[in-house]
């Protein structure tokens, strides 16, 4: 009964799967091109993932880091959005099969991003908590606050420790920033909100399998980060593998055990391949092999960009580009320009990555940032971190709301959004009855 | 295994059930009293219900109208909060039975508020959508946006109408404000977000069984409201009963039918009685009979305030006080002072309601307000409405975020929070495994 209802025009149709950094930039670059742009996403919003950890730790409201996709493109005449899930692609027939029906394409771009990678460890996958989507971040916030509430109802010290210990696995920016935020919750929020709670029973761990945290940054910044985290009371373990986790006890490579009901896994991501892409175009971590024009191996009108794409045309990145927003954005822009060139009969330009730098925040007044050959740390890096994130956040309203939250938190040492949103079983049952499409309304409770 | 862990002191213990307007004010009034204050709520936040309709219509983020209860009382030394559900009360033994274990009390105050009242119509109850909690409002937002998305995937006009028609039942402030907000969605958001959609197929209805909307206000304000709503394109039907609703088609008292998948019911509320309160203290709508000191019939140390309480000591309100925030707040304050007087051996003061006025907003630049004998309408009433709501909203951060949202919406005709938060099945399964208490984490998806 449902059908995509996308008008047929004489212009070639460019179908983009995924409204992340890459997909958005690509669609924008095609703004005035003589093509019809169709963007598909399972959500109706663009998510600013770099601040997801602040939603998970009650620092920002979920709505402030999400921007409605229709809003972004409301003035772009050649643009059509459909909320849909892609089921498979038929590259021979140039047809994309989705849950709202088949969609024909002339150019297809897979900008499907990545998901949490547990590297095949099923036991950990079953019990660890991932954080890639907005709803996952909200669930983590609910869960963490509930752990605090429940630890107040216990008397056994071991049980309380188990509830209050939080373990971050993976020393990338996400792990570092999460660990810093948890340490700040312990420092500023718990003593005020739970004066009766023995806060000293709470430990925050950051566990990294490799020899340093923030592997993409310099030795200097990495060491500064570890020092900063330790000053905040985070237990940083490097060269430490996580062997097993059953939801209650974590076993390290050396056999040591840590009691915790909360293992947040940010040790890796992987591509999310779509059925119909030839196996020989996929590498083991799910990324799709593309050439320097982001064309998928064996195709000229099927492309992949961002986290989904595996491109190794730069000797600095022999294993492919890092799975970060910068790469996705630049590939989106390059591909958009290449499609415009194709239409004019011009030759395409090979993708060339320009690393604008990287940064991570550790906590109040503490961050590290590297760009233009500079290595910054401390207060100034922290200001730079905030300015860069605010400027890159989409939409004036979101910028203002995030700014207000940060200013409030800075001045009061408080976090405004520590609410547990739950319940509502009554409505959800009703609301589901009238849903026609396979995907469904959420935020419910069972 | 869980237990309330509330310290035993020599001071009398005042247990308040419910962190709404009444419960909060009562706890604050007891700030310096020689008592131990225990507040119980199933949620960890206070909800500013008057703005709930703006969350449901994508005008405000849920977090901006919720304030963590622990945050409100962080400087009140005699205060203890526990997130808990009350199961029953044993008034003979002065014990409250909850899902975190039994809690002893010296004074018990039921400030449990109200829930949607379908007046026994099971068929309507099953299909209509209520809006009393934060999660319900978020669910409505998700649902409404999804109706818009899905109507784009249809070609049959009747099916599209069914998706785009929104029916508000109940002409009180909630129904009026919801209807106005839906009309504004149609006016400002739909044409921009869904240029392909035949917006003229969308209708907004406001149905009231009685002879006027805003029954608590003057004839003049009521008529002004109806004119304002009609100018916005809302179909206002008064003296019109809703006979039946099956989730797709609504049947009116006169046999006429309206096709709609969305019937929002705000035609009435009822008390939520707690097991253990004697039947002869309950009236049919679930409110608890209290005397002028808010003491529950047959008790001296069990009280009810706000929506939960039925008190008819004022000839202006022969059927009891209206179920509004003002009454709850004033009863909370009066009871707090009476408990203090009891402790000093003084006599208690009978509750006396001071109506500070009432107001409702119809849309941009349009509202009605009555206070101090004044009857305001139009632009000025709209400004008054906004100022009063902002001032009454708890917390500086919330005030700022709401203000930013309103200013943004006013200037851009846009609504920033129209995102559909869904999915996350992966995490929720894991997160539920470690939950010990019967209530559970939510915002999940099945």
From TrEMBL, chains A, B:
The chain crosses the membrane at residues 376-396. Keywords: FAD, Flavoprotein, Membrane, NAD, Oxidoreductase, Transit peptide, Transmembrane, Transmembrane helix. The keyword NAD applies. It comes from the Bacteria. Its EC number is 1.6.5.9. Residues 356-411 form the External alternative NADH-ubiquinone oxidoreductase-like C-terminal domain. InterPro entries: FAD/NAD-bd_sf, FAD/NAD-binding_dom, NDH-2, NDH2-like_C. Residues 13-332 form the FAD/NAD(P)-binding domain. It is an enzyme of class 1 (oxidoreductase). It catalyses: a quinone + NADH + H(+) = a quinol + NAD(+). SUPFAM superfamilies: FAD/NAD(P)-binding domain. Pfam families: NDH2_C, Pyr_redox_2. Belongs to the NADH dehydrogenase family. This is NADH:ubiquinone reductase (non-electrogenic). It comes from Chitinophaga horti. The lineage of its organism: Bacteria, Pseudomonadati, Bacteroidota, Chitinophagia, Chitinophagales.
